[in-house]
Amino acid sequence: MCPKSEDVWLEAAQLQPGDTAKAVVGQAVQCLPQSVRIYIRAAELETDICAMKRVLRKALEHVPNLVHLWKAAVQLEEPEDARIMLSRAVECCPTSAELWLVLRRLET
Predict the structure, then answer these.
(1) What is the CB neighbour count within 10 angstroms for residue 15?
(2) At what angle do helices 49-62 and 36-45 cross, to 10 degrees?
(3) Which GO BP annotation is one of this protein's (predicted)?
């Protein structure tokens, strides 16, 4: 296997059933900790909302400047936690008008 290829890892996970796919994606995260596509796939494989949140938070530790990741993570949160998370999001992505607008809406 080519350990630095997102596509190879994602295809390998696609070919596996549930828990095995999760294990493949877990290995992929170890090899490619900056891969947003792999983190998104890891979150999609989770059936538990808490596990999904955990995956996306781990992704944000490695890639904190991507609006797409922040939006995915915020959507899973309750309003108060979403507000806290968005405050951090606008620190990491200060030029994102979209994140600022969502934060503003939650604060009013």
Answers:
(1) 10
(2) 170
(3) spliceosomal tri-snRNP complex assembly
Q: What whole-number distance in Å separates Cα of residue 17 and Cα of residue 48? A: 17
DSSP string, 65-91: T-HHHHHHHHHTS-HHHHHHHHHHHHH
Residue 38: partners with Cβ closer than 8 Å, 6 or more residues away: 6, 9, 10, 25, 28, 29, 32
Q: Which two tokens stand for residue 32?
A: 């490619």
pLDDT of residue 1 exceeding 70, the answer is: no
Q: How far is CA 81 from CA 46, 77, 84, 106, in A?
A: 20, 6, 5, 10
Does this model's pTM top 0.85? My answer is: yes
